[in-house]
Amino acid sequence: QLLEAKASLSLAQTQHALQLQQAQAQINNMVPKKQFEQLQSTLREEQCKTQQLQESLHQQAEQTCRQLVRTQEEHEHLLQAAVEQAEGLEYSLRSAEAVLAERAAQLRDAQAQLSRNKLLIKDLCGENRGFAMALQAAELKQKTMKEKNQLLEEQALALKQLIGKITPASLS
């Protein structure tokens, strides 16, 4: 029984020593109460800050969302205005093209008329040269006729004088 009691005591001492070591290990792993309270306080502060940051982020997100909606509406208005302006410019371009085509047709007609007029002027210049030569010939003929006429008038005057001299002599 003594041996049994010794063995039991030895086992109990070993178990106690083991429990003591475990307790010591737990005590070593434990944080002092004051430090624990500071950590809890810091944790609460950090949680408050986190909550404030989350609320701030939520507000910023809402504000950004509103701003994005406004920007999108502005872009839609700008896009609509740009589309309308483009349509107006396209209409103006088509009108200008039509006017340009009409003017081009008028210019082609005018150029054709100018070509016809050049040919007509060339023909008229040829005719004019012919007329100038005919006029020159007519003037030369007229000059010759004048000279002949003057000669005839002189001869007629001489004949009159001669007749004037002959007539009184033949009457007497």
Automatic annotation (TrEMBL):
Keywords, A to Z, come to:
Coiled coil, Cytoplasm, Cytoskeleton, Phosphoprotein
The source's superkingdom equals Eukaryota
A Gene Ontology biological process noted in the UniProt record is:
microtubule anchoring at centrosome
List the residue ranges forming a coiled coil, or say none.
36-63, 93-162
Chief location category: cytoplasm
User: GO CC annotations?
Assistant: centrosome
Q: Where in the cell is it found?
A: Cytoplasm, Cytoskeleton, Microtubule organizing center, Centrosome
Query: PANTHER family this protein is in?
Result: NINEIN, NINEIN-LIKE PROTEIN
Task: Name the chain's protein.
Answer: NINL protein
What species does this protein belong to?
Answer: Sapayoa aenigma
